From TrEMBL:
<dbReference type="InterPro" id="IPR006311">
    <property type="entry name" value="TAT_signal"/>
</dbReference>
<protein>
    <submittedName>
        <fullName>Protocatechuate 3,4-dioxygenase beta subunit</fullName>
    </submittedName>
</protein>
<dbReference type="GO" id="GO:0016702">
    <property type="term" value="F:oxidoreductase activity, acting on single donors with incorporation of molecular oxygen, incorporation of two atoms of oxygen"/>
</dbReference>
<dbReference type="GO" id="GO:0005506">
    <property type="term" value="F:iron ion binding"/>
</dbReference>
<dbReference type="InterPro" id="IPR015889">
    <property type="entry name" value="Intradiol_dOase_core"/>
</dbReference>
<keyword id="KW-0560">Oxidoreductase</keyword>
<keyword id="KW-0223">Dioxygenase</keyword>
């Protein structure tokens, strides 16, 4: 299915979704009283999480991976009772040339579960894990195409529409891993009926080690790839994370080329 048709579908979905009120708005907005209130509510100092909020450098792009499809799920909580360590995410989308927040953008995320399995592609992801990384690596152009889902599961997939501050919030679990890749979350931004950013969100490996040592992650042994050896990892993809009760709170600023002119 072509990108133009996909853009139209997302645009219609955006129109019926509306823009929700998001609890992490203060965290990712301009520094000030609201950011301080968010910091206290989260139980920690969020100053470091706001670092880079006025940097307009284009977020590194990445292949969308082999398991992308439009899950047609406008929702903030994407867990569907999947076991794992709770992760709240605040994402602010801004224009890479002006730093202006991008309202009315659709942000999609999808990632594997604690065992390294993707919904809608359970058989494929298990088979791929058993066979190991592809010969051409995960940056191969073959991973730029959409797939047709092979099962009815849709856990750990969802989309939200940015509010006027360019912000969306998701609740998910810390992702697991699979052979040849570090821990990551796939992210796609749509704006004005076009895909303007494909990227991936990564995590500090010390935190990865801490989380993956706990159930249910610990049952999946033999992790073979860390950030330093991952051929997609870039510093600009790192989620800024603090503890948040029995889970974690992470924030990231995504700078997208809204008019796709290379700026």
């Amino acid at each position: 299915m072509g990108h133009d048709h996909e853009g139209q579908r997302v645009s219609r979905r955006r129109l019926i979704a509306g823009i929700s009120s998001l609890g992490l708005g203060a965290v990712l907005s301009a520094p000030g009283a609201r950011a301080g209130a968010a910091s206290r509510a989260a139980g920690g100092d969020l100053a470091s999480l706001l670092a880079g909020s006025r940097v307009c450098k284009l977020t590194p792009s990445a292949t969308q991976g082999p398991y992308y499809f439009d899950a047609d799920k406008i929702r903030s909580d994407i867990r569907e009772n999947k076991p794992g360590v709770r992760l709240r995410m605040g994402i602010r989308v801004q224009d890479s040339e002006t730093c202006s927040p991008m309202g009315n953008a659709v942000v999609e995320i999808w990632h594997c579960d604690a065992a390294g399995v993707y919904s809608g592609a359970e058989k494929e992801s298990k088979d791929d894990a058993a066979s190991g990384p592809p010969p051409g690596g995960f940056t191969d152009v073959a991973f730029m195409s959409d797939m047709k889902p092979s099962d009815d599961s849709r856990y750990l997939r969802g989309a939200q529409v940015t509010n006027g501050d360019g912000i969306v919030e998701f609740t998910t679990i810390w992702p697991g891993w699979y052979p040849g890749r570090t821990v990551h979350i796939h992210t796609m931004v749509h704006f004005s009926d076009r895909r303007v950013l494909n990227t991936q969100i990564m995590f500090d490996d010390a935190l990865n080690a801490k989380v993956l040592a706990t159930p249910p992650y610990a049952a999946h042994t033999g992790r073979d790839t860390f950030n330093s050896a991952d051929n997609i990892f870039r510093d600009g993809m790192m989620l800024q994370v603090i503890e948040d009760g029995d889970g974690y709170l992470g924030t990231i600023i995504l700078s997208a080329d809204s008019d796709r002119d290379g700026g």
